[in-house]
Please model this.
Amino acid sequence: MAQQSLRKTAAPPARRVAPTKARPAGDQVQSLVRALSLLNRIAEAPDEGVTLTELAQQVGLPSSTAHRLLITLEQERYVRFNNDGRLWSIGVQAFVTGCAFTKNRGLARIARPHLRRLMEETGETVNLAVEDEGEAVYLAQVECSQMMRAFARPGSRVPMHCSAVGKAIFSAASDKALAKILHQRGMPRLTVKTITSTAGLRTALQEARALGYAVDDEEHAVGLRCIAAPVYDETGDVVAAVSVSGPVVRISEERVSQLGQMMIASARAISADMGAPAPKSA
Model:
């Protein structure tokens, strides 16, 4: 399992930019969209990076156009180029920009001590995720020390309908919001246990609301079981979900109920720190 580290680097010297002819606004917007598409593909690539040819193919651009945009992103330190391996990877400025989200929101910072405590109590990997564009996005993870363990780096995405964090967030969503996301994203089958019907998902969400936690029973990945509970903000809206993930050999069916109660307790503690009102059942 690869580990990532960042070193503080000095800011590059100011560059003198030669004046250029103004381009139509439409061209500028198109260039921006293309550059962001390249940045998104690099973010989804393996840690070692991705080649120019692969990037150009993924976003449907000529290699020359992709290279020109990558050079601009590199100058601003959003991407970096490994000359030895001829690979492009995420740069430090993209990290700084991305961290601004969690810094401003404060959710990951507030949740971190609770995630650490929960990992120590359960002995399994613990996650924090939010919904974005109809998918669950991991904000933070505290890995356990087990040899075999779940791993999802911050920023990675999973479908809502077959993940515990997604179903926990879905459990508080309105029928209209649920229908919109399902229409947008669909319900692709990832394993033989994946729920692929709206009726089946609604039944699972009804059970999650009754229990206070949601379960992913090998629906996203074979051999992996997850339990999650929703996190609320000061307005009483669900803003995230906290989950525990591990192999089915350790997270047995007999442990699900116990871990579910631990998820509820941790989610409530995080919610309280977010300023959420106390639950009515308390």
